[in-house]
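Study both lines:
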Amino acid sequence: MTPQLQQAIKLLQLSRLELMETVQQELLENPFLEESAESITPADATEAAEIRSEAVEAYDKELATNADWEDYLGDFSSTSRQTSSRDAEIPEEMTSFEARLTSRPSLDGHLSWQLTLSSITEEQRTIGEVIIGNIGSNGYLQATMEEIADMAGATVPEVEVMLRRVQRFDPVGVAARSPQECLLVQIEVLGYDRDPVLVELVREHLEDLEKRRYKPLCRKFRINMDDLKEYIDLILTLDPMPGASFGSSEPQYVSPDVFVHKYDGEFVIILNEEGLPSLQLSDIVDCLPTVSGPDKDYFQEKMRSASWLIKSLHQRQRTLYKVMESIVKYQRGFFEEGVTQLKPLILKDIAEDIGMHESTVSRITTSKYVSTPHGIFELKFFFNSAIGMDDGSSVGSESVKALIRQLVQGEDPRRPLSDERIGEILKEKLQLNIARRTVAKYRTAMDIPSSSKRKSAF
């Protein structure tokens, strides 16, 4: 496999942001490559490359042959009309968008700020810093009192005193050692600790509440179900994960590679080329015939690399368009009505339709996203296995998952549907024979609890 072919394959599987970084890096390193001042079409780029390749034909016949890019061109849409309309917009005369952004405060920084403002001694401040340094991302303490005492050079009673103080910082209940302690601290701060039943429920019976063992609790505390419901509603207002709102992980934003819009009853595919530079060969290539000696090989290699990058980018965009066009054809029901109409589809179907290898389809659908009338989806989403129906036809597994989700959302909370009952409903509606264990597998994959955990006594 030649380096040029390796580069073309690599570009296929890069995400849009990774592709932009790769192109920018090549622009910095390759003197034969430059960004066009104006947006040029693939045909313009091909013509320019062919003219310049003729100038160096005597030096590199192979390059001149490879510069014929007719096989790599195709009729695929671009965002030229969108970008031209944006060029006419008046930019905001103010600071840049990036300059107006601010990072989210971390849990460690938020607690340290409160510790700095506290009226405490230097010894207590040291203990507090050690406590804060041993709090996990969920807000719970991850070290014992003895370990903190050793690290801070203090005694365990001194650590206990400072821990109690930190636990009452914002968010209340942080640095707790168990869920019970976390909720009890919040109950105390809110003034609810005067109710012994509430305190006992939290301290000793959280597991019973989780498993919905309500009747034994009513008998033990001599209360009715309505009273127990009030206690449960109050407990649900508390936060068992006080550090969750200060998560350090940043949200991942997706920039779609393709847009699919419906226009006059047909679906139009538009490739997202915003931010992707239009590349062309630099004028320095005209100096190549005058170069001799050891510099000649370097110049030829860089020119070959620049030509192949432009060629590979066009091939990538053409392949992406063809694959998306085929997906729209096979999954038209999804684009019309939504996920419940998603049909079974495998890579081989698309590969045979567009006349390419399965591995090429697999690479071009990796880390690529499409904006549809029903939301943004990864291209891999459209490939799902088939489930046989009684009439001999098949339905996609993703469609079955969507129907299971709809059934669960519309069920009676007091009488949730069992996996077996969901299977029976699917058979009635779709004439689909699906085993209970298959329903359970799909339900688990969608993070839907079992019927016993979804059941509500109220």
